[in-house]
Design goal:
The protein is built from 24 helices and 15 strands. The protein is α+β, with helices and mostly antiparallel strands and 663 residues long. Strand 12 and strand 13 form a beta hairpin. 49% of the residues are buried.
């Protein structure tokens, strides 16, 4: 009840039907969730996102969490904004409860464990509220460690299976960085605690049985979640993450060493308005030469929990606290803190997993939980001899003082906030949306100043913003500029116009009027837009919509004179169907991204797509024909069968006779 009350109280605007604004909420997560919900409503499993850029594999990009159980339920039952809000509140609630439960198994008494849960959940996550995936880590990180502790205490098949299922469901949520950190921490925790718990008289090999089972659970989770992992691995091999570059740097998001002093000097120095605006910490002594930001590098326990941690320096208190567990967590905190600085990236970037993820500052989640547990253990030792009501009263007072301390720190660096009215609720009042949607399906593609903005209108939009994206999306030679370099320059230039026509971009959106518009475009309207102004915080300022006079088509033929007419007859997330009439054999190009898994048939007969084309192209004979493109990736089918078979095997393991593997 305390956890639910905190989640509802802290995020009260979301409970009332408001929404989150800022950061990645609108440029990234909500465009995915809109397509996810529409796919569910149409009775589909949306494997492809047909609105961002020229399209991308929605399942493979992963962060939509297509098969994550809460998403499967919430986005079928509620509208997108309500489902998104409910997901946030649900995970904050579960994160608090599961952190409390894990703290209890670490020797923290019941009421001090409330402080532990408060420090972890409301110290590390509110600053990262614009990242939906972050609070998923708040749930599965302590849950996986609790299940790991159970494996260490008594290693049985059922406990190993439970841990594998936990990691597997976590992987289905779609963001793998914190899942990877959770797996590494679980294996390290198993090694550190198993060696301590096994008696010296036990055979040496028995000390490694629990860590071996935890490692096997990690491997098993990859098999259980293969329906998500296999498509993502396929995309990764074709993405911007195949090598380190300006587009993808594994060291991005590190925590400069000096910035670690934020645990003492948080909202009153490092997170004060002037310091945050200047981003001074980026150039502080010892900072790794890579970009970062305050959200990625945030770590704060609160002043009272920090004071409790420092009391460990007193020997008598170390004896009262569960000092052996403290030693384990001090090792984990130190290791994660060093890695978070980015200093190890020259070596780590060459290691499997480490070189695939960026944001080493995210390893501070280990520090956040470890510090919270140590504070709870010290408080347990201090209050051990007091009557129960006094313990509860003191813990409640400390929590009451710590919560505003944590939230004050977070609000100064968070790049998103909760507002009482969700911009998404204004979608139908958007004049830009209504103008573009009136053109019909696949008739409009928008070039906008913000990535993925047009997705919320229900139309295709450039530029695109993806976590893992096809490499072609990062080729500057393909994509036009979103505006002139100088206000007085003509826009679009001849080069940009060629790109607009090649990509079938029909409209341009700007927040300021073009001073020197090209003769190739004309203005459609200039009015305040209900959705865009609420999303961007622009008050009553107008936005400007222009039309490309040549009206680039999404369907073209080569030679061009062979095309008589065409009409789009069916559009779904994973398929496109259109009728076409040709005077001669021609290559018919659908200006959407070609990607493994897209198959084409002509009049119901399977055809072969033109090889080595960025866009979907097929040779079509003269006459009237129906062409249908369907997304049926082999990676999805392979992953599906691996997941099914692995689930059956895990269920059998879970009901295995209850015996210990260590006896």
């Amino acid at each position: 009840m305390i956890g639910l009350g905190l989640a509802v109280g802290v995020w009260w605007p979301l409970v009332q039907g408001g929404g989150l604004v800022g950061g990645d909420v609108y440029p990234y997560f909500l465009p995915q969730k809109v397509v996810l919900a529409e796919g569910f409503a149409a009775g589909e499993i949306p494997l492809w996102h047909n609105l961002t850029g020229l399209g991308y594999p929605l399942l493979a990009e992963s962060q939509a969490g297509v098969f994550y159980p809460p998403n499967q339920i919430l986005y079928r039952l509620f509208d997108v904004n309500t489902a998104y809000n409910a997901n946030v509140i649900l995970h904050y609630w579960l994160a608090f409860v599961l952190t409390w439960r894990f703290a209890r198994c670490q020797g923290v008494h019941s009421w001090p464990a409330v402080l532990t849960a408060l420090v972890f959940v409301y110290g590390w996550f509110p600053a990262r509220i614009s990242w939906e995936w972050s609070i998923f880590g708040g749930v599965f990180f302590p849950l996986s460690l609790w299940l790991t502790d159970r494996v260490v205490q008594r290693t049985t098949p059922a406990r190993g299976a439970a841990l594998a299922i936990c990691f597997g469901v976590y992987l289905l949520s779609g963001h793998f960085t914190l899942a990877f950190i959770s797996q590494l921490t679980a294996m390290a925790y198993a090694v550190l605690t198993a060696r301590r718990l096994r008696s010296e008289s036990s055979p040496r090999k028995q000390r490694w049985i629990a860590p071996g089972v935890v490692t096997a659970a990690v491997v098993g989770s990859l098999l259980l979640a293969a329906i998500q992992v296999v498509p993502t691995y396929e995309l990764k091999r074709m993405s911007q993450r195949t090598r380190t570059s300006e587009v993808f740097d594994p060291a991005f998001g590190h925590m400069p060493p000096l910035y670690a002093t934020q645990v003492v000097a948080s909202w009153w120095y490092w997170h004060s308005e002037n310091i945050v605006r200047s981003q001074k910490f980026r150039t502080s002594p010892g900072a790794f030469p890579a970009n970062t930001n305050g959200v990625e590098a945030h770590l704060y326990w609160g002043l009272i929990p920090l004071a409790l941690m420092l009391l460990l320096l007193k020997r008598s208190l170390r004896e009262q606290a569960c000092c052996v567990n403290c030693r384990t967590w001090l090792i984990l905190i130190l290791s994660a803190g060093i890695y978070a600085t980015g200093w190890l990236m020259p070596v780590a970037r060459h290691l499997p997993g480490f070189g695939f993820f960026n944001g080493p500052g995210r390893y501070t989640i280990v520090c956040a939980l470890g510090g919270a547990i140590i504070a709870g253990q010290v408080l347990s030792g201090l209050l051990a001899k007091l009557p129960g009501p006094n313990v509860a009263l003191i813990a409640i007072i400390l929590c009451g003082l710590t919560l505003p301390d944590l939230l004050w720190s977070a609000q100064h660096i968070a790049d998103a906030k909760a507002v009482p009215v969700s911009p998404l609720s204004k979608t139908e009042d958007s004049w830009v949306r209504n103008n573009l949607m009136a053109k019909g399906p696949m008739q409009s593609r928008l070039l906008a100043p913000g990535p993925n903005v047009g997705n919320l209108f229900g139309v295709s939009c450039v530029p695109q913003y993806l976590g893992i994206g096809p490499a072609v999306y990062y080729d500057e030679a393909v994509w036009p500029a979103t505006g002139p370099e100088s206000p007085k320059d003509e826009f679009p230039t001849v080069d940009d116009l060629a790109k607009l026509e090649f990509l079938a971009i029909t409209h341009l959106l700007t927040t300021e009027p073009l001073q020197n518009p090209s003769a190739a475009i004309e203005i459609v309207g200039e009015y305040p837009d209900a959705l865009l102004n609420a999303m961007w915080g622009r008050g009553g300022q107008p936005v400007f919509l222009y039309r490309v006079l040549s009206t680039p088509s999404r369907i073209v033929a080569e030679p061009a004179e062979s095309l008589v007419t065409f009409s789009v007859t069916g559009v779904q997330t994973d398929s496109v169907q259109f009728d076409i009439e040709l005077t001669q054999t021609a290559d018919v190009e659908l200006r959407e991204l070609m990607y493994p898994g897209w198959n084409v048939d002509i009049d119901g007969t399977t055809a072969v797509a033109v090889a080595d084309s960025m866009l979907r192209t097929v040779s079509v004979p003269a006459g009237k024909h129906t062409i249908r493109w369907t997304f049926q990736p082999a990676s999805f089918r392979i992953g599906l069968w691996i997941s099914i078979l692995s689930t059956l095997a895990t269920c059998l393991l879970a009901v295995w006779p209850r015996q210990q593997w260590t006896t």
